[in-house]
Amino acid sequence: MYRAKTTIEQWRILQAVVDFGGYAQAATQLNKSQSSLNHAVTKLQDQLGVALLEVIGRKAYLTEAGEVMLRRARHLTQNIQDLEELATNINQNWEPEITVAADLAYPREYLYAALKAFQPHSRGSRLKIINTVLTGTEEAITEKWADLVIAGSIPKGFLGEPLCQEYFYAVCHPQHELAQLNSPVEPSELAQHLQLVIKDSSRSPQEKQGWLKSEQRWTVSDFNAAIDIMCQGIGFCWLPEYTLQEAFKQQKLHKLNIKGSSFRAISFYLIAPKADKIGPGTELLYQQILALRQCNAHQQKANLQVTST
């Protein structure tokens, strides 16, 4: 096994001498004697056999070799600091990893805004963002494999905070047969056409949500795949409003007028499946997501007005 010739403390002292402009200034900042710093850097250079600093007047300057090695050393000392902070966080029950399961229909711009606010305070916690659909979202709650879940319904026995309401529209290509009908589409007529559905992420999917009465169904993995297929003039699909803004703007998709249902509305909730064991990092992210609710409501209202025009 390789045995290091140098110590982390020696590299930290070298950084301080460079960053603070000399031995005297670094000694003041580190609360050490100037002679001890001088000794540490001299020993570091002797151990490496490389000149790292040269003193001109009263100021120390890096040599070319010193610039290269100090740049690498900064990564080393930062990694050590991160490692020590992680140990402290674990000791304080700060989670090393947080898992968030978010239903695919929840607007991602809302989630990403919360993550941006959370990141500076995350203390190095790893974050896993898992996209879920339908029964798969429910399983993240009932099986408690996620720390936080954003879901379109709350399973029995759990509690959730309301986040927003998302509107789903039935859409197809403007040249599709359904788009050519002048009167509202009868549900019986709709059932005769190919429907695109998003794959349930559950290991044991249960068809208990949504309109699934078409005789023909194609299953795709995500909303983008459904949009791409419909842009070829194939099928119709129920999609959340936030995924349709660009397609409507470019007139790539047509919103169907269905008798008895111009749209579907789903309310989303933030749920902590293990609420009695929630850690401080998860609690902070939970609060960041909730803090953006009002902002999300204003944005949603603006989007709905654009869609309606």
UniProtKB/TrEMBL annotation:
InterPro entries associated with the record: LysR_HTH_N, LysR_subst-bd, WH-like_DNA-bd_sf, WH_DNA-bd_sf
UniProt domain HTH lysR-type: residue ranges: 6-63
Gene Ontology molecular function, alphabetical: DNA-binding transcription factor activity; transcription cis-regulatory region binding
Keywords: DNA-binding, Transcription, Transcription regulation
Pfam families per record: HTH_1, LysR_substrate
UniProt superkingdom: Bacteria
Keyword Metal-binding on entry: no
Family: Belongs to the LysR transcriptional regulatory family.
Name this polypeptide is given: LysR family transcriptional regulator
Species of provenance: Paraglaciecola hydrolytica
